Amino acid sequence: MSDPRIPKLYHRSTPSWEQRQRESFWILNEGKTVPFNTRPDKLEALARECLSRNGRLYAESNAGNSWTHLANRQAFYRHRIISHQLVDTNERDTTTTLFGHRCAAPIGFAPIGINKIYNGAGEIPVAKVAGELQLPYGLSTAGSTSIEDVAAANDEGRTIPQAVHVEGSDDKPIRFYQLYMPHDDELTISLLRRAHNSGFTACILTTDTWQLGWRHDDVATSNYAFYRGIGADLGLTDPVFQKRLEEAGIDPKKEPERASAKWIDENVWHGRAFSWEKIPWLIKTWKEISGGAPFLIKGIQSVHDAQKCVEIGCDGIVVSNHAGRQVDGAIASLDALENIVNAGIGEKLVVTFDSGVRGASDVIKALCLGAKFVWVGRLWIWGLSIMGEEGVRHVMRNLLAEFDISMAIGGFRNVDEFTKDRLESYIKSYSLIDEKAKL
Ligand code: GLV
Questions:
Q1: Could you read off the pLDDT of 88-136 as tens digits, one per residue?
Q2: Is residue 263 included in any domain, yes or no?
Q3: How many CB atoms lie within 10 A of CB 391?
């Protein structure tokens, strides 16, 4: 384990993330302990204790029997990492470049709605820590903090003393706006304008959640924060949606439930799917507003759809099955990634990956299978639920340390060395379900 008191022996383009391990071991001598255990099963268990019943149920919600979630986890289990020994990893580099922006690692904060049910401060601490760590942040249209306030928190993260500097980066935060597209074009344009004016780097259209999947526990307990007046913040702060409320005679101060229901039912998961015909309009609109910023589609699971994304002019895709929360019994997102990359899509646009990531080895496996970048969701939600800003920081700094150490001991010097031949992959036989796969 490296000792920071030894004069600098090597050069890194980021802080030495792995020092966190040493610090964690050392602090007992100073009468301190680490905030909490980030081993995913224990992290989840602790988060469950800290949350209200509704927060807990929503955080752990999956579609139907949770088969898709299970498939997501099992697929990781099917691939094993092949280490290389006697590789000089001292100057290893965790950084990557995403759409021209330098990030500290190929890891981002996946867009997740209504953070306020996990912590009263909502998306603010999350966006702030993402900025601090120079990791991309995704804001959902179903978020519970306005676009402008999230952007300000993300910027603020860059100004705090422990903010990470990535060599060669302009030190600007990288943020993605995840659009749930309303059937009200004026409102869509307004949301996109606000995102661009607030410095969002790219737009992601999510296409797997025109309607929420069937989630037994939420249905059985009427667990729907939006009908309790929580989670309409992007709408309530939007001039076009404010006009729509006025037209409908709804005063959000007097009737927060009705206002919030109008937002979610009519504009977010409105139950009315779009088709490919609408996408050129959206791309053109976003490109005009943003001066050509990247446009991605999220929820892609088939080669067919990935090819459509290429043809239609997307800059990237997010291979995601919404973390198993939408279609139950679906293929593992990691298997979808493999199919899509094998079809050569990664040479035509930027393929990013989401769903089921629980640790650094999962990130590495997705990268080896051809993802350029990996989104992490539930891990930081659990950290947020346990300890707010400090909890998110603790989870993500530990994940970066684990990633860095895995590179050091696995013989990976930089992200280009995550290649398919560094995995041994077994056949898709999921009959043996290891308990750990259920995490
Ligand atoms: C929304 O994105 C959800 O999965 O609940």
A1: 999 999 999 999 999 999 999 999 999 999 999 999 999 999 999 999 9
A2: yes
A3: 28
In-domain check, residue 431:
no
Cα-to-centroid distance, 80 and ligand 1 (Å):
30
pLDDT on residue 10 = 78
Quick one: average pLDDT of 267-286?
Answer: 97
200 pLDDT exceeds 70?
yes
Pocket of ligand 1 (CB under 6 A): 113, 142, 209, 212, 322, 325
> Which residues make beta-bridge pairs with 297?
205, 317
Distance from the alpha carbon of residue 111 to the mean position of ligand 1, in angstroms: 9
- Name the residue type at position 290: S
- Mind giving me the DSSP string for 148-179? HHHHHHHHHHHHSTTPPPPTT------EEEEE
Catalytic annotation, residues = 322
The whole-angstrom separation of Cα 83 and Cα 387 is 35
CATH for 96: 3.20.20.70
Which pLDDT score is estimated for 429?
74
Do residues 129 and 160 touch, judged by C-beta distance below 8 A? no
Q: Where are the beta strands (DSSP E) in 61-134?
A: 79-81, 96-98, 101-103, 107-109
* Enclosing domain of residue 274: 19-425
277 burial type by CB count under 10 A (0-12 exposed, 13-18 middle, 19+ buried): exposed
CB 188 within 8 A of CB 156: no
* pLDDT > 90 fraction of the chain, expressed in percent and rounded: 94
329 Cα: distance to centroid of ligand 1 (angstroms): 17
Question: Ligand 1: which residue has its CA nearest to atom 1?
Answer: 113
Quick check: is 1 in a domain?
no
pLDDT at 437 over 60: no
Q: Which of 57, 112, 116 to mutate to test the pocket of ligand 1 (most atoms within 8 A of CB)?
A: 112
Using most ligand atoms within 8 A of CB, pick from 322, 328, 354 the residue to mutate for ligand 1.
322
Taking the centre of ligand 1 as the mean of its atom positions, its distance from the CA of residue 112, in whole angstroms, is 7
The domain total for the chain is 1
Pick the closest to residue 63 from 341, 290, 322 (CA basis). Answer: 322
Q: Is residue 374 part of a domain?
A: yes
Q: Tokens for 313?
A: 């002019």
Residue type, 13: S
Q: What is the pLDDT of residue 436?
A: 47
pTM: 0.96
What contacts 417, CB < 8 A, 6 or more positions away?
none
